[in-house]
Design a protein that fits this description.
Number of strands: 28
Strand content: 35-45%
Shape: globular
Distance between the termini: 59 Å
Low-confidence stretches: 1-7, 13-35
Helix content: under 10%
Radius of gyration: 27 Å
Largest sheet: 5 strands, mixed
Number of helices: 1
Structural class: mainly beta
């Protein structure tokens, strides 16, 4: 009897060990096959262009990213003289920033959050030099320089220095070659002190800016134009429906077969949770090779419906951006496991068919956390 009892105990023990091994093996298999999140990765850090001086405009470049980011968020931060102890500057969430009195004696950094369906990654520029106070009596730029002409190899561009105030101003002119986003600019040495510039092969695929330095006894002020359109190769005609010239396009001057493009998106808060009650969504509209469009009507709605309110169409501004406010409705979250908020976005020209003309449509998703 005792032998039979021992056999039963051993059999039960082996069964328990076998079940435990099965669970461990099962977990190992599950862990081995789990999908690996692929949040954006920064491959070239953000940078800052401009003079770190009170009242001068600084321009931040988002740098280079892998992982197909769907949205970027920008924040300027004020740091100590060595670039540490940084704090976000309230309201400074655009790609440009003018230092104020509080920045004098400190440095600045440009911080970028890149986001896709798998997460958000943050990268920050190196600090600027220590911000200096505005120079009394130095030239003041009242309207920025501009460029006229066709952005195509072999074509001549003309720079206009814009408006200035101040006494006895002497001007120097520079043409700069920049990347396709208008950043990472370098002076074109052969084009110094010229009001005109003929585009060459090295400019193809890049943009150019016209830079003006105004100098008087009070100091020097440097201002650049907005970037040109991306320079096309020689012999490539201006796309049909696109106005000639470079830079901003008024929607009234754009026609078929040109098409609008929603090429950038932003959302605030950058991380949407189940408790989020309102959203601020921003959409950037371009056409004709990346030129910003002013006056395009932008519409957005969450899919499926009844998650957030549908705001009225909003026109894009002189920077190509439209801002729309959305409030939470009873249908959000759509499921207890919702991970994305999918939105349908449309940009169109007033008076044209919603499905025709130069209109465009796309789906944009934003990350949702519980």
């Amino acid at each position: 009897m005792r032998l039979r009892k021992n056999h039963r105990i051993l059999a039960a023990g082996f069964a328990t060990i076998g079940a435990t091994l099965a669970v461990v093996v099962g977990l190992g298999v599950g862990m081995g096959t789990a999908a690996i999140a692929a949040a954006p990765q920064n491959t070239s850090p953000p940078t800052i262009k401009g003079t770190p001086q009170e009242g001068q405009t600084l321009t931040g470049d988002q740098g280079q990213w892998s992982g197909s980011p769907t949205a970027y968020t920008y924040v300027w931060t004020r740091c100590n003289k060595t670039g540490g102890s940084c704090t976000s500057i309230s309201g400074a969430t655009a790609t440009t920033y003018k230092p104020v009195a509080a920045d004098v004696g400190n440095t600045l950094r440009f911080k970028v959050d890149a986001k896709n369906a798998d997460g958000t990654t943050t990268a920050t520029s190196t600090p600027t030099a220590v911000v200096t106070a505005a120079k009394a009596g130095s030239p003041v730029n009242t309207s920025p320089p501009t460029i006229t002409g066709t952005a195509q190899q072999g074509q001549k561009l003309t720079g206009l220095r814009g408006g200035w105030s101040g006494n006895s101003i002497q001007y120097e002119y520079y043409w700069t070659r920049c990347d396709k986003n208008g950043g990472s600019c370098a002076n074109i040495n052969s084009a110094r002190d010229n009001l005109t510039y003929t585009l060459v092969a090295a400019d193809v695929g890049n943009t150019v800016r016209f830079k003006v330095e105004g100098t008087n006894a009070g100091g020097k002020t440097t201002v650049s134009s907005a970037p040109s359109a991306i320079v096309a190769a020689a012999g490539k005609p201006v796309a049909a429906g696109c106005p000639t010239g470079t830079g901003l396009i008024q929607i009234a001057n754009l026609g078929s077969p040109a098409r609008l493009l929603v090429d950038q998106t932003q959302v605030s808060p950058s991380t949407i949770s189940f408790g989020t009650t309102s959203l601020t969504a921003r959409f950037h509209v371009t056409a004709c090779g990346g030129r910003p469009v002013q006056g395009a009507l932008v519409y957005v709605t969450a899919v499926p419906y009844n998650q957030f309110s549908i705001p009225n169409e909003q026109p894009t501004g002189s920077d190509g951006w439209a801002t729309l406010q959305m409030n939470k409705l009873g249908g959000f979250p759509a499921t207890p496991r919702q991970q994305l908020l999918v939105t349908f976005v449309r940009a169109r020209k007033s008076g044209e068919s919603l499905l025709g003309g130069i209109s465009t449509r796309r789906l944009v998703s934003f990350r949702v956390t519980r």
